[in-house]
Amino acid sequence: MLTDKPAPRPFFILYLDGPEYVEELRRLTSWVEGLLLPVYGGEVTSGAPWCPRWWEHPEAIAYLHGLWLAWQERTSPSAAPSDPALWHQNHLWPTMTALRDPNGPFAGCKPGGHRPKERPWVERDD
């Protein structure tokens, strides 16, 4: 039996737009600011930067959304007892290490200061 249902879209924040994107970013922000940073944020230093306007860094949004999706999966009622440990090992620390690397997306940002990043220039040969 054929249906006219559209193919499901991948549920990743970078594939969303308009109100769907805004709502998902709101939900992500709630998790980042309500759980992730208070528990795992650690001290902000030049060796472990964090941007107070992290949502203005698309790379950070992508990393954090993936981390949050994994959190939901690994802490759901159907998760195995060892899933939270796997989340820490396989998701949390690699993500936080990449985000907070001195040369990562928050390089140059500091408490009270956001520094927009220039993206690589792509020249087209038309």
Written overview of the protein:
This protein is mainly alpha-helical and 126 residues long. It has a domain at 13-35 and 50-99. The chain is built from 3 helices and no strands. The chain has helices at 18-40, 58-74, 83-99. Helix 2 (58-74) runs antiparallel to helix 3. The relative contact order is 0.14.
Short overview:
This protein has 126 residues and is mainly α. 45% of the residues lie in helices and 0% in strands.
Estimate percent helicity.
40-55%
Strand % is under 5%
Order of helices and strands: HHH
Quaternary organization: single chain
Provide mean pLDDT, rounded.
Answer: 90
Give Rg in angstroms: 17 Å
Largest sheet: none
Keywords:
DUF4913 domain-containing protein, 3 helices, mainly alpha, 126 residues
Layout: helices, strands, pairs:
Layout: H1 18-40, H2 58-74, H3 83-99
Helix pairs in contact: 1-2, 2-3
Protein name: DUF4913 domain-containing protein
InterPro entries: DUF4913
Region (Disordered): 102-126
